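To: structure subgroup
Subject: Chain for Friday's discussion

All,

I'm putting the inputs and outputs inline so they're searchable in the archive.
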Amino acid sequence: MAVALTASDVWTARKRRVGELRVRQGFARQLLDFYGALLSVQEKVYYEAAAASPPAASLASYVAEVVVPSVLDVSVSTGPERMRSDLMNRLETEDPRDIVERWIQGEDQPVVDRFLARASLGPVLEALDARVRSACAGPRDAQHCPDCGGPPQLTYFAQAQEDLATGPRYLLCARCGAIWGYPRMTCAGCGEDSSAKLSIFSELGTTSGERGSLVRGLPHGGAPAPQHPVVFPHMRVEACDSCMRYLLSIDLASDPHAVPLVDELAAIPLDLYARDRGLTKITTNLMGF
C-alpha cells in the first residue's frame, strides 16, 4: 500500500527533482534554476496560507496582497529577461488582484498574466481544502478537476500495486494541483476513446495496441552519448486526432524518482515535437510550454 506524502515531502521532492534534472538536462537548466528559486517562495507561501486559511470570498485579495510581491521579486531577480520586463510593464497598468481573479474565473489571459496568477495562486490553493477550491469557476466533468474545475496539466501512471498489472492513470490539475483518476487510452481534452484517433509519441516507440510513432533526435544536454540517446524514457506525448490536443504523460513505474510536475515542466523538446506536428497542449505549463 502506497503511503501518502506529507506536505514537507512534496516540496522536498520537487526541489530534489529540480536538482537532478538540471544536471541531466542541460537544455532546461536556466528554466530549472528559475523554477528552483520560485519553489522556495511557493513553499513558504503554502505554509503561510495553510495557517491563515483565507476564505474563498477574499482569495484573490489575499493572493494579490500577500503572495504576488514575493513571486514578483523572485521572478524579477532570477527569471528570464523578457519575463522581467513584461511583468514590470504589466503591473504598471494592471491590478494584480484582477489578474488573479481572472485565473480563478478561468478566463483567457496573456502569457505574463497567466504566469503571475498561477505562480501566486497555485500554492495557496494546494494549501486550502476543497471547499475553498470549489469557488473557482470551471466545468465539473471527467476532463476537469473535481475540486476547482481547472484543466489538466499532465497525465501520469502511478506505480502498480502488487495485484495489478499496470498502475492507474491520473490527471493533475493546472490550477490547484489536485489529482483525479482517468481511463487509459482516452483523450483528456475531449474524451475520445477510439484507439484509431489516439496517438502516442515516445522515444521508446509504442507497445502492442497503441498507435503512434518513434521520437528521435532529442537534445541530451551536450554529454557524449550513443546514437539517438533516450532523454525521456519515462515520458511520452499522448495526442488526439479528434481535437488535435495533447498532454505529456509520465510513467512512475519506469522512473519512480520522477516528480510529474517537475518532469513535465522540463520536457521542452517533447512539447516542441508535439507542436511541430500541429498539436496544441490542453493547457501550457507554468513556464508557457
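Points worth raising on Friday:
Residues 29-52 form the longest helix (24 residues).
Confidence is low (pLDDT under 50) at residues 220-226.

D.
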